[in-house]
Amino acid sequence: MKSLFVSSFVLIATGLINFTHAQDRLSGKSFATRSVVMGQHGMACTSHPLSTQVAVEVLKAGGNAIDAAIAANAMEGVVEPHVNGIGGDLFAIVWDAKTKKLYGLNASGRSPYNLTLAEFKKRGLTHIPPTGPLPVSVPGCVDGWFELHKKFGKTPMPTILSSAIRYARDGYPIHDEATFYWDYMIQRLGSFPNVKETYAPTGTAPNRGELFKNPALANTLEKIAKGGRDAFYKGEIARTIDAFMKKMGGYLTAKDLADHTSEWVEPVSTNYRGYDVWELPPNSQGICTLQMLNILEGYDFSTIPWGSPEHIHRFVEAKKLAFEDRAKYYADPAFAKIPVNELISKSYAAERRKLINPEQAARRVEAGNPALRDGDTIYLTVADSEGNMVSLIQSNYRGFGSGMVPDGLGFMLQDRGELFSLVDGQNNTYAPHKRPFQTIIPAFITKDGQPFMSFGLMGGSFQPLGHVQIVMNMIDFGMNPQEAGDAPRIDHQGSSEPTGEKMLNAGIVTLESGFPYESIRELMIRGHQVGYALGVYGGYQAIMYDAKNKVYHGATESRKDGQAAGF
Fold first, then answer.
1. Distances (CA, A) of 430 to 131, 282, 418
2. Which of 20-34, 211-225, 518-532 is the least confident region?
3. What are phi and psi of 453, to 5 degrees?
4. Less crowded by CB within 10 Å, the N or C end of the chain?
5. In terms of C-beta density within 10 A (0-12 exposed, 13-18 middle, 19 or more buried), how is residue 33 classed?
């Protein structure tokens, strides 16, 4: 999550930071919070225990990983509406055990036909606002469910969605993290129609442990379960969204919804020290992970300790270079020519690596010539007894979303359109019926053509940084999947963005508690600004497959309320 980035950071100038320790453990890293969960027949890792349990129930009833992932995502929209829901978009990578192949799904929505760049200019806007009707794009989540189900599913959709419907109608206790952000959302968005009626029916945000019900969302999910994706995009739900947006002065219409389609895409990869790391191509930011890994592969991390100034400095400088390309090139490929193969090539990385000064933080870098701060998201991963694995990420973008809650539907529409640029002539410049730059990215790793790990992190612009850190923690620093996620994390803010901002100085490095002060001091000497930030380090889930013993190893996020469970 990125909502509470602390811009008024404090430079670290004293030696008060010590290594973070969980309680004493018999083995493993001192920062590990729990053991890896192991199971032979199935595994589910999500950011909420109820969602994990729903996924496991589907698996035990004979459903496959795809069925269970859809069920878990639907449940997440009920129990964690502060980070996802059917008003948002979805991306997924699926390992299909039958064909022994990865499949990528881009289920992101497009901007309204009737909203133009000229309209933003007429209003004098330089950026699309985060709330109200203007940042609303077509929600792609529901179509994503049905595309996944049509291609891979086994269990009927009414059965898959039944648990989410039941919990929405009967209620569930609010968990810690949701409570923290729920109150903030009511303060920020509570003046919009239907927000308090839906999310704070007593007039205030629900307290920790309080039972919360969303009968309107239960009804909406029931209609989707019975009527399929067309019930959402062409039926009564679409007409309700159309009428509400007109009433709010918005531009999203029934035609925008009716014309929506998801896209099956080929995942792209780079090889990092013998492991193939897979991401989805733009309009998402997935290839930023591959660009960073290619740059970092040129350094011998067997001689560079984890948490050392050399490790952190090289990581941050590689991020700055990759983010310049991200700002310039990443966009909807239907509207822009994006040199994906060149951007993720080893030769291009070698040229970019030459720009890194090992002793000095770069204050400004430019995009190469190969020929966002906020974001609230859920990530989940599921594996089944047949060997299928799903890496799925879904989001409304900024917290609950835009503040637009259509009458009687029980969910908020996303504000993903905020991620367009309003600067003429850029790859990501706003246009009608165009997909905005997307921060949400699922990931997958294969080894010698076989599945090794399905993983991902939530958290806006942090996600590629998080992906790279997980890969390095496991491959370079020898951690297991749980340790790789529990390890203290590095973030950097201030890079150029696809929304038009430019990096004008070195930016800010923020470090979780647990990095040695000696490293922090050396980073400052090298010209880095170093500080703290609250809640910016993402949320991680992973399933690793041990092919020799045929065992799944599940890991979940110690910073969230999640659960990994297997059997």
1. 17, 15, 10
2. 20-34
3. -160, 135
4. C
5. middle
Q: How far apart are CA 559 and CA 485, in angstroms?
A: 9
CB 459 within 8 A of CB 285: no
Please classify residue 424 by burial: count the beta carbons closer than 10 Å to its beta carbon, then call 0-12 exposed, 13-18 middle and 19+ buried. Answer: exposed
Sign of CA pseudo-dihedral 259, 260, 265, 268: positive
Burial environment of residue 126 by CB neighbours within 10 A (0 to 12, 13 to 18, 19 or more): exposed
| Closest listed residue to residue 145, CA positions, set 157, 163, 137, 136 | 157
- Confidence band of 232 (pLDDT split at 50, 70, 90): very high
The whole-angstrom separation of Cα 469 and Cα 407 is 42
Catalytic positions are 377
Region of 209 on the Ramachandran plot (φ > 0 left; ψ -120 to 50 alpha; else beta)? left
Cα(545)–Cα(281) distance, rounded to whole angstroms? 24
- Cα–Cα dist 463/458, whole Å: 6
Number of domains in the chain: 1
Task: Give domain status of residue 470, yes or no.
Answer: yes
Residue 488's nearest CA partner among 499, 496, 477 is 477
What gap in Å lies between CA 353 and CA 298, rounded to an integer? 8
Angle, helices 286-296/463-475, rounded to nearest 10 degrees: 40
Q: What is the CA radius of gyration of the chain?
A: 22
Q: Answer yes or no: is 460 a known binding residue.
A: yes
Residue 425 pLDDT level (bands cut at 50, 70, 90): very high
Report the C-alpha gap between 373 and 5 in whole angstroms: 8
36 found inside a domain: no
| Parent domain of 46 | 1-30+41-567
Spatial CA neighbour of 139 closest among 104, 164, 111: 111
Quote the DSSP letter at residue 419: G
Give yes or no for a contact between 531 and 5, defined as CB atoms under 8 angstroms apart: no
Per DSSP, what are the bridge partners of residue 421? 429
- Cβ-proximal residues to 100 (8 Å cutoff; 6+ apart), any chain: 449, 450
Q: Which two tokens stand for residue 293?
A: 């890994």
492 belongs to a structural domain: yes
Domain contains 192:
yes
Q: Report d(CA 88, CA 104) in Å as an integer.
A: 18
**Which helix (H) or strand (E) is 447 found in, with range?**
strand 443-447
Residue pair 53/68 in contact (Cβ under 8 Å)? The answer is no
Please write the tens of the pLDDT for every residue from 336-362: 999 999 999 999 999 999 999 999 999
pTM (2 decimals)? 0.94
**CA dihedral for 266, 137, 407, 87, sign (positive or negative):** positive
In the chain the first and final C-alpha atoms are separated, in Å, by 30
DSSP codes of every residue in 145-163:
HHHHHHHH--S-HHHHHHH
